Amino acid sequence: MSNIIEVKNLTKEFKEIRAVDNLSFSVAAGKVYGFLGQNGAGKSTTIRMLLTLIKPSSGSIEIFGMNLQQHRKEILSQVGAIIERPDLYKYLTALENLRIFATMSGVKITEKKLMDQLDEVGLADRANSLVKTYSQGMKQRLGIATALVHNPKLIILDEPTNGLDPQGIADIRNLIIRLSKASGKTLLISSHLLSEMELIADSMLIIDKGKKLVEGSVNDLFDPAETVVELKTTDDAAVFEQLQTSSLQKYVQGKRNDCVLLKLHRNEVPVVMKELVKMDVNVISLHSKHSLEDYFLSLTTGNSHVEATKN
Amino acid sequence: MINDFGLIVRTTRKGFTLSLAAILLFPSMLKAQTADELIQQVKAKLDKVNDYQANGKMKTNVVFIKAPIANVKVYYKKPNRLRINNESGISFIPKGSVNINLNNIFINTEGFDIIDVGKEDKTNFRIIKLLPKDENAEVVLSTLYIDEKLSLIRKAKTTTKENGTYELEMTYGKYAAYGLADKINFSFNTKDYKLPKGITFDYDDGSKKEENPDKLKNKKGKVEITYSDYIINKGVPDSVFK
Amino acid sequence: MWKLLKIELFKIFKRPRTYIAFGAIAAVVFLIQIALKYDGKSYVDLLLNNLSGSFEFSDEFKGKLLNGYMICFVILNTLLIQMPLLVALIAGDSIAGEANMGTLRLSLTKPISRTEYMLVKFGASVIYTFALLVWMAILALFGSMIIFGTNDLVVLRSEGIEQMKHFDVLWRYFAAFGYAAVALTTVSALAFLLSVFAENSIGPIIATMSIVIVFTILSEMNIPIYDQTIKPYLFTSHMVAWKGFFYVQADAEGTTINGSIENLPAVLRSLGILIIYIGVFFSTAVWVFRKKDILT
Q1: What ipTM was estimated for this complex?
Q2: Residues 6+ apart with CB under 8 A from C23
């Protein structure tokens, strides 16, 4: 079985809104699959359809080679998930929460295994504290523990690093890599942070307004030398106008209210700098930044490399 | 007070006239007893009892009460103390139940005027009316139906100022010698039964209620006591009447 | 299924709010018991006020009248009207509370069908309702029996007085508590149904209470056009039918027939109507929930 998830022509309509529009993709076994899109792009709706929380208007979903509607129980017993926030029973302890969701997953789990699971996410010493006393990061880790406690083959994490501090984000990142590389799990992870996905995903899907923009392996999608640069000057509006009529015009991507965006190859940075000095532009800063938003910009301005992978 | 001379006394509430002629013509060997004599005999029988306690079964028949048959103990002590006790359960004891003690009829500080009404056709019981002389007495009139042969009151009707009319009907047996009945039927007037609506949230079972607004209005209630045994003149502690 | 039910019960009985209802019942029962223990005479005088023209009521009579059985009847009469709120507190929270906490979506990604989930949730609400009634029976019935002793039971209704022997009472209470369980399960089913539509538990709790209050007012008002049209079909009209077990039959002479019920078919009919309501409320809830997209 090569593909763990096989989605075909998936569509979901809520009254007038088409939240997911004819979406098809597949997730290979043992891989980390990044599911990217801005807020409201349809990521959550798609993930909820994968987890039977939302009924598709049309299209089909197969997981582990089985139709999701017809084999719901068999499939879900092998899936672990966090959807958006890891909300748990705040008036219960971590251990009690874990025990409840383990039991609901239909597997027999010993107390020792529950404790081991908490230990793995670093919560063993707080196992008997009420969840309402937990920090956001601890809740997130407990959420992951509940998703993993029944040893699922497929793990679906919706925005797992939301609201976490840098250390928390790093911890989750390491956990995901470990799960994938050491345990051979398949992971579907949604995010609106491209930089995060670049580090952990093997391949990814980017959607916008419910439609697929691109799908492919991360290596194929990104040329690390190709970068979007934020240029901050003393007068961005004037500089933007000035650049339009200069030799740097071909690099201009667009303008945001606090900077001008340039897209260029790493080697071209010194050239651009020199030219800016020549034009007497008062540069405050110039730094490259990967963001989904910028990536969208690059998609819409016709990067040939990306174009080639578009379906 | 009953006439001590054994005269036939015809009385009205305003006074009485002696019928001397009757006395002269029919001395004491008279076949027919005078009303006075009869009352005396009845009273004498009742006077033999200083106190009693009796066991009985009481049946309550009041239109708005559904009550089980109750085991009761009835206590009496001269002159007019009577108590009906349901020792194990609850019984609604009608007002004026003290009147089931027949002695009570003759208790009146200022005496009675006695009226001989004659005989009841069907039963041949002698009908005698007693009118208390005391104008303020609660009892206005008592009508007694007396079995002359046995000197026993078989029926009594008492009209009161405030509490309507009571009726008693007695059946005698083993304790007839003491003027104590085996079975007493006590009828009394009941006032309207009304419970403020809204305090109970009744369950309306949807069945058509009888369209009879009089049902709960002034009606006769009945209490029937059937005695199984009496313990007579063996003393009854005062405490039971409290 | 049993494991899931155990989880639900665990969750319910781990929440402090669950015990509010038990505390409230205990408080009301104790307050009534204390009041009647120390000032029962005034209460009895009030009840018997209208009868004292025809009957003599000794202190001994009043003491016997105010026995444990009667106290329990007074408590049930007062408390069962308030119980829907306590039941709605849990049943209305059943689904909406999970949605509000965000645990509903996680629970529904588990290998449990939505119908199973609903059965377990409703089952737990029903068990909670039963637990409340058992608690009430312990305090109001057995507690009063211990504090006030037992004797014949006298029930005053607007049509007259129902009196039954002391040995003929306890089974009626068991039947009445059983009936009350069904009546409150109806409320529970309504709150449960409303809970499916809401994303926080306040809405269904208030909606349930509003419906119960409006229906109760309609049931209690004597408006001819409602009497034979909608009144017989309101579930609230049938919720008080537990009292039917305390209405006895009498023979022609007005003597109570031991072990009898005045109108058993009417009580059973009321019971049937409530069961139909429960069925309709619950199956609608399941039907809606199965189709529902979980967006919380």
Answers
A1: 0.86
A2: none
